[in-house]
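Morning F.,

Quick status update on the modeling queue. The single chain you submitted on Monday has been processed. Sequence for confirmation:
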Amino acid sequence: MGAPEENDAALLRAVAAGDPAALARLYDRHAGWLQVRLSRRCADPETVGEVLQDTFVTVWRSAGAHRGGEAGGWLWTIAARRLVDASRARARAERYTPAPAPSAPSAEDHVLDALEYGDMGTALRQLGPELQDVLRATVVDGLTTREAAVLLGIPEGTVKSRARRARRELRAALARVAGRPGDPPPPITAPSPAPPRPLGDPA
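Structure tokens below.
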């Protein structure tokens, strides 16, 4: 991972100096996972494409503002801000247009709702922040190990080990949420007494 990080830093310095070829190499390296991550947060491909383009326009203009550190995280910060701006602009435009009929939620919407509001979301929030980040990157956003490592600024081996640990702890947290282990045993009740026999009946 050391070499890619150095290459990104060198490319950003070249972009800051006005080298369009360096910007093209940065785009080739990072546009794929950025598009995947943006698409998980916005279902409109046109908006995602515009945000991705705006992200690299901002990189061209602001590469000199990069102060070292992980380039992937810096790029995602720019992309996330551009997506917020685009969402706000779209919300303003929708105030003046009739709202379309609501569409049926997709399978992905159901999954994401479960991650936020269901037992899965409750269990996920019991994990440490670093484990949540790895699961969201690799499971929710569908990033590869390498892409997640670039985004989170950690080695690929760390992504793999945290993912294994996160899945193990998530299973335990889900079990706790569902109340399977540790449930109190059912109360033990004494058997009902037999009804009294009438006097004179044989025993």
